[in-house]
Write a structure and sequence with these properties.
Order of helices and strands: HEHEEEEEEEEEEEEH
Largest sheet: 7 strands, antiparallel
Shape: elongated
Strand order of the largest sheet: 1-13-2-6-7-8-9
Number of helices: 3
Structural class: alpha+beta
Strand content: 25-35%
Helix content: 10-25%
Distance between the termini: 79 Å
Length: about 190
């Protein structure tokens, strides 16, 4: 194989890999497209695009933890729930511009993602918090208040790109309509 064939083969392979990304960010535009095609969101597999760490101080006598683990940190018990990048999740809550994605087995324990106030239709759904204190988002999870670690405050959700390729999108181009010189007989004038 000569040098030119190797380069052209490499370029073709690179283009193919770049065009076939396995996941795409979930946006308001994609949500509208899925809705128009009657695709229920609870049948779509979601993924988080980065690690999300939830933390909360555990009060004395409240050492029972259902999710995550309790560690002793500077003399305090801390409950840490770690959500690794690309963890699969399911939509268990749908509202206007908000989705609740459950990453564990309980439908009551979910993280809220949605369209932010300044978002455009193609901006990804980002993690939402009840309030923001400095760089930490405060959310309710498992009936308790947790802080989102700063590295996870920009987290977004993704879906597999092949879902969009499977949609049955019907398109029609209108040809226009010209004035007919003859008056139709069904007019009542």
């Amino acid at each position: 194989m000569n040098y030119k064939n190797i380069i052209s083969t490499s370029l073709i392979a690179l283009v193919f890999v770049a065009c076939s990304t396995p996941k795409t960010y979930f946006t308001a535009a994609i949500r509208s497209e899925l809705s128009a095609n009657h695709q229920p969101l609870n049948k779509i597999q979601f993924y988080n695009d980065r690690e999300i760490v939830l933390r909360r101080d555990v009060k004395t006598g409240e050492a029972k933890v259902t999710d995550g683990k309790v560690v002793l940190e500077n003399g305090h018990n801390v409950n840490i729930i770690r959500l690794k990048k690309n963890t699969p999740g399911v939509c268990v809550l749908e509202r206007n511009n908000i989705l609740g994605i459950a990453f564990d087995q309980s439908n009551n324990n979910f993280i809220t993602f949605g369209k932010t106030k300044q978002a455009r239709p193609n901006d990804p759904y980002r993690i939402l918090a009840n309030e923001w204190i400095n760089e930490y988002g405060v959310i309710n999870y498992d009936g308790k208040q947790f802080h989102i670690e700063p590295a996870g405050t920009e987290a977004s959700i993704m879906i597999k790109s092949k879902i969009l390729r499977k949609l049955n999108i019907q398109q029609h181009e209108m040809k226009g309509r010209k004035i007919n010189t003859t008056i139709p007989s069904d007019t009542n004038q």
